[in-house]
Automatic annotation (TrEMBL), chain A:
Pfam families: DUF6510. It comes from Streptomyces omiyaensis. The lineage of its organism: Bacteria, Bacillati, Actinomycetota, Actinomycetes, Kitasatosporales. This is DUF6510 family protein. InterPro entries: DUF6510. It comes from the Bacteria.
UniProtKB/TrEMBL annotation, chain B:
Residues 35-179 form the Oxidoreductase molybdopterin-binding domain. PANTHER family: OXIDOREDUCTASE MOLYBDOPTERIN-BINDING DOMAIN-CONTAINING PROTEIN, PROTEIN-METHIONINE-SULFOXIDE REDUCTASE. The lineage of its organism: Bacteria, Bacillati, Actinomycetota, Actinomycetes, Kitasatosporales. SUPFAM superfamilies: Oxidoreductase molybdopterin-binding domain. This is Sulfite oxidase-like oxidoreductase. It comes from Streptomyces omiyaensis. It holds the Pfam family Oxidored_molyb.
TrEMBL record, chain C:
Its cofactor is FAD. Residues 2-105 form the FAD-binding FR-type domain. It holds the Pfam family NAD_binding_1. PROSITE patterns: FAD_FR. InterPro entries: Cbr1-like_FAD-bd_dom (IPR008333), FAD-bd_FR_type (IPR017927), Flavoprot_Pyr_Nucl_cyt_Rdtase (IPR001709), FNR_nucleotide-bd (IPR039261), MRET (IPR050415), OxRdtase_FAD/NAD-bd (IPR001433), Riboflavin_synthase-like_b-brl (IPR017938). This is FAD-binding oxidoreductase.
């Protein structure tokens, strides 16, 4: 019996999400809406890979996103209350805020 | 070099009659997880049926264990392509619970202690086709396999057999669950290979 | 962003009883950074496909258009035993990558470098070691490498040869070599003594999930800030 089933890092999401993102998604950043822990996508705890990848907050295990890969399709679900991911815009770094 | 990965066969093999399309037989019992394993002590466990009007009927562990017990031996089929033959369970037919409430809903959502959900037609969890199982192969069901109690609906893909079940909600409409809302089939018949939405 | 490219097996090297490094030719490979990984896809005759992630063991550059992977065959596994022993030399699989921008280190980063590997978790860290050795950097670099026994050490000769430029500390968990000052046992607080100052450097940890959890806690106890630790777990 395994008390803590095996999980991976969000690093494991780089391949599946890389199919649909134009920048590396694993450095995207979020603040968990449930426990306020900040984390990059690479730091999330990822369960799976089958039947899908479930990425959870490393602090409180709230679901951050889910990815299901099928022949011809990729499903990405952020779910309600899952928070937002902040992506760097590689071509927009020179502009100052405000 | 024409073909890719020559000599790679995956695990698919033919198995007359009992093996749905695209499945391979396994002797082991793989554990798939979508999150940390909840540990629910039986003295704090309860099972609740909720109707579409919000009425509830609950059973404690001892009350559930006092209900008529059945011992189904069934084949199970996981959407990740393994099938396991002659699995032995002990538990209570869902008919016993659903007969206790007044509902005209044609759909149910099974809900687990870890927040997992899965949707099923009511007729697929009644008529002796589904169980609340608390023992596997003669032993109390371990947490990694869904203990203290899980749903067992062997004629559908095994993601429908929710682990760590805490209740059944009768719903007027079909409400996609955890995997069904992320691309998996709403019904999940292994013999028709209903894996994904489009199948 | 990433398509599947054909990758042809050109070389297979035995590292341990179950560990192999594979060199694959990938035409138009765009290069990668130390720590990144690739996905490998296998296709059976009936169309069934399986995808798994493997770390890149060498920095890009040495052989452009060629990548080196580390594969640990797990008994009963669907993909790793095939890659480790059955995929014929000259045959092709598909590769997607490079992947991951978080678990990455390049010699441009200043400050001491601490690498902590558990078992085949050495593979992506070896890419960092090799990049560090190929650079002019003289920042302190330490590799703590936890293995069950001396027979389980990947890249043994190369690490021996590197010992004058980086500090390599083998930590045996089950069987220590004869005459070893450190008894066999799990990595613990004493193994983290005399490391480079924790405030300035970066720390990379790779290994099985339990190992990474344990080392992560040790590092935090030792005074490493969470923001300085990057981890990669494998199942």
């Amino acid at each position: 019996m395994n008390e803590h089933p095996l999980y991976l890092d969000g690093n494991a999401l780089a391949g599946p999400l890389g199919e649909v993102f134009t920048t590396d998604p694993t450095t995207a950043w979020r603040l968990c809406p449930a426990c306020r822990l900040p984390a990059t996508l690479a730091q999330l705890h990822v369960y799976g890979p089958e039947p899908g990848l479930t990425a959870r907050c490393p602090g409180c295990a709230a679901v951050a996103l889910r990815v299901v890969t099928q022949p011809g399709h990729l499903w990405l679900q952020l779910g309600s209350g899952a928070g937002a991911f902040r992506f760097s815009r590689p071509h927009d770094r020179v502009r100052n805020p405000g | 070099m024409g073909s890719l990965s020559p000599g790679f066969h995956g695990r698919t093999r033919a198995f007359e009659g009992r093996l749905p399309p695209g499945q391979y037989p396994t002797e082991s019992f793989p554990v798939l997880s979508a999150g940390p394993t909840p540990h629910v002590p039986t003295d704090r466990w309860s099972f609740t049926v909720t109707t579409e009007r919000g009425e509830t009927r609950s059973w404690t562990w001892d009350e559930m264990m006092a209900l008529p017990q059945e011992e189904p031996t069934v084949d199970i089929h996981c959407v990740t392509r393994w099938s396991k033959f002659d699995t032995r369970w002990r538990g209570v037919s869902l008919d016993v619970f659903l007969d206790e409430v007044d509902s005209s809903s044609e759909h149910v959502v099974a809900e687990s202690f870890d927040g997992y959900t899965t949707n099923l037609p009511r007729e697929d969890v009644t008529g002796g086709k589904a169980w609340l199982a608390h023992a596997y192969d003669g032993y109390a069901l371990s947490p990694d396999h869904g203990g203290p109690a899980r749903l067992v609906v062997p004629h559908l893909y095994f993601w429908k057999s929710a682990k760590w079940i805490k209740g059944i909600i009768l719903t007027p409409d079909d409400e996609p669950g955890f995997w069904e809302s992320a691309g998996y089939h709403g019904y999940g018949d292994p013999w028709r290979e209903q894996r994904y939405w489009s199948d | 962003m990433h398509g599947w490219r054909r990758a042809r097996l050109t070389e297979r090297t035995r590292q341990t009883a179950t560990g192999r490094t594979l060199r694959l030719d990938v035409p138009e490979w765009p290069g990668h950074l130390p720590g990144q990984h690739v996905d490998i896809r296998l296709t059976a005759d009936d169309g069934y496909q399986a995808v798994r992630s493997y770390s890149l063991a060498a920095p890009a550059g040495a052989g452009a258009g060629s990548i080196e992977l580390g594969v640990q065959a797990t008994s009963g596994g669907e993909v790793s035993p095939y890659l480790a022993d059955d995929l014929p030399l000259g045959a092709e699989v598909e590769a997607r990558g490079p992947l991951g921008g978080w678990f990455v280190w390049t010699p441009r980063e200043s400050g001491p470098l601490l690498l902590v590997a558990g078992g085949s978790g050495i593979v992506p860290l070896m890419a960092m070691v090799r990049a560090r050795l190929a650079s002019a950097s003289d920042e302190p670099c330490t590799l703590l490498y936890s293995v069950r026994s001396p027979a389980e050490v990947w890249y043994a000769e190369e690490l021996d040869a590197a010992a004058h430029r980086i500090r390599v500390r083998l930590l045996h968990t089950r069987v220590a070599p004869d005459g070893s000052a450190r008894p066999a046992g799990r990595i613990g607080g004493p193994d983290l003594r005399d490391l480079p100052p924790s405030a300035e450097g970066r720390c990379y940890v790779c290994g099985p999930t339990g190992f990474v959890e344990h080392v992560g806690e040790l590092l935090l106890t030792t005074g490493y800030a969470p923001g300085r630790i990057r981890t990669e777990r494998f199942g």
